[in-house]
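hi! just following up on the protien thing from before. the input was this:
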Amino acid sequence: MAGIIARVGPCRYRVRDGGTHFEALTSSIIYQQVSGAAAASIQRKLQALFGDHMPRPEEIVASSDARLRSAGLSRQKIRYLRDLARHASEGIIPFDGLDALSDDEVIQHLTRVLGIGRWTAQMFLMFRLGRPDILPELDLGIRTAVKRAYRLRKPPDAKRLHRIGAPWAPYRTIASWYLWRSLGGDAAI
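and the predicted 3d structure came back as:
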């Protein structure tokens, strides 16, 4: 890690605290499995449908599929956004209290939503809630960076990655940021 830190330079990790937690998760769903440019276009169109703001849960619930599809959302993403909106409007996810929950509790709540898995929940913990000790063991970039940095024959599995990353605690979020940056590019970090 010392070599990576020296090569990458000062840490520029930042928490993205603008908007609401619901809006952040809405964006996460929109950005899944599409290019950044395509996702940004979809998000702009979605905001335009709702008076130039990210839709609130009740607005998603009240909108027709056709209206949401007109922003470029797939049927699957509409399903995911509707499930997120339902969790928000029914109070199933305590959005106002997420900051007070443990990392595991946040993951448990968020992964109940269709389309939000462990990786998305970990990104939320890192970049939305600013949790300092998250190691996203499923992230291909992290696994690739560790393979390169530690000269492994293949990317480590989750168990091995946690063993390798144990000394980075309690700042595994920062270590992860450096690992991503060691691969080059800015990739949403």
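The chain is about 55% helix and 0% strand.
Residues 75-89 form the longest helix (15 residues).
cheers
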